[in-house]
């Protein structure tokens, strides 16, 4: 009974962070909507690049242009959602300025609080920008879409897992600022690795064999490639469950690393403050 | 007139040298910054390679031609960054009320703002683009005549002015809307990325737009046609020669826009 109250209370508290950040996003809605312009421009660019690449070709590696178009669309939509959360530099800035110490004094778990805050701003962006825009795009362009309810459901589960994986990795990376004041060059490799190996713009099935294998051993493919592939129907049957399982395993590993780094970072702040 | 210009220029160099020394103070950050930029571009180049691995060509452009097209844009962007990249954050100065100090000094405000930073991080752009141009030059077995070298220099000069002009125009928007940094990331950055690929993959409207309105086509695509000996069905080859002139006209227009904004600037302070 008491445990229930605690759990419910905790949930309510974190839910409040989501609600607040939703309201914040609504107050700064202009920012959210200008961001969609950049998102659409990149969608436009990749759409025409793939159109140009497919020019005069029917299927490449067993993938039609309509499927590829669908891949790009859903990938840009997901990337838009990922981008609506707290950006990496903001976390780094909080570490550099020491503001993060204030967060640690408060009776909540910082990584969890950030996650729930992001849920709020992402929900706002999802409802007011991504859904209206991409609904129109999907209706006009008529790409391949999930044909069954279960395929759509699995896509949603996989997309959420992908979001959590990216969140853990990015926050962990942001926390490295505790040790490295300047993360310049490392940060660029990190971003490049995410953008290429997550399949955000090029699906892994177009990679050269050896590179595809490398990508298979990395956690990044779970971010965009797996949900996108489920969405366009390139991943079916048993393969879907295998991919979901690998996402779950990677999420657990990334979460464990995040917890470890966070624990270390907390110690670090005590030493610096003392 | 001439005297004040000369004084302005010597003051510019004085301030630039101060800015460089300031940036060199943090040696580790300085090197990481350069390497970071170079690696970001190398990353894009690798993405292009992966992209063409299964497909071979993009509208008749092979990998090394794409790299050349990309590197040409990065080279002039590097020069442009040194002088104009900080213009995007003009809104910060206006919002904080610190812009006023540029108005009360005995130097032209535009020059003064321009001299404020001399971004040495741009050496990363040079590192990448020079290596990439050299590699594609040898892989494509190019043998440029003297006039082609002139086209190349003209493209760098014109590209610097075109991209710099656009940065100036974006910063001018801050005088009206108090926003510029955001505009850069939302409009110019994606637009610049569009130009890393051959223009002909995009619809006609876009092609006309980047030739006649925002002359991005003169930064890399049109000169690259001449330099790589390629032909296009819709664009006359001589257009590539025009880069430096288009650059100067465009930059002048953007500069006038900036001055127009400056004249209606009202301080945010009380």
Description:
- The complex is a heterodimer of chains A (274) and B (270).
- By secondary structure, chain A is mainly alpha-helical.
- Chain A has one domain.
- Chain A is built from eleven helices and two strands.
- In chain A, strands 1-2 form a two-stranded antiparallel ribbon.
- The radius of gyration of chain A is 20 Å and the shape is globular.
- Chain A starts with a helix and ends with a helix.
- Chain B has one domain.
- Chain B has eleven helices and no strands.
- Chain B has helices spanning 2-24, 27-55, 63-84, 90-96, 109-115, 123-139, 146-177, 181-194, 204-213, 221-227, 243-263.
- The longest helix of chain B has 32 residues, at 146-177.
Short description:
The complex is a heterodimer of chains A (274) and B (270). By secondary structure, chain A is mostly helical.
Name a few traits of the molecule.
heterodimer; A: 274 residues; mainly alpha; two-stranded antiparallel ribbon; 11 helices; 1% strand; B: 270 residues; 0% strand
Estimate percent helicity of chain B: over 70%
Strand segment tally of chain B:
0
Q: Summarize the largest interface: chains and residue counts.
A: A-B, 37 and 36 residues
Number of domains of chain B: 1
Sequence of secondary-structure elements of chain A: HHEEHHHHHHHHH
Radius of gyration of chain A: 20 Å
Number of strands of chain A: 2
Question: N- to C-terminal separation of chain A?
Answer: 40 Å
What are the low-pLDDT stretches of chain A, counting only 5+ consecutive residues below 50?
none
Give me the number of helical elements of chain B.
11
Any idea how many domains of chain A?
1
The structural class of chain A is mainly alpha
Which bin fits the share of residues in helices of chain A?
A: over 70%
- The parts of chain B where pLDDT drops under 50 for at least 5 residues are none
Measure the end-to-end span of chain B.
34 Å
What radius of gyration of chain B results from the CA coordinates?
20 Å
Figure out the total of helices of chain A.
11
Strand order of the largest sheet of chain A: 1-2
Listing every helix as H and every strand as E from the N terminus to the C terminus, the arrangement of chain B reads HHHHHHHHHHH
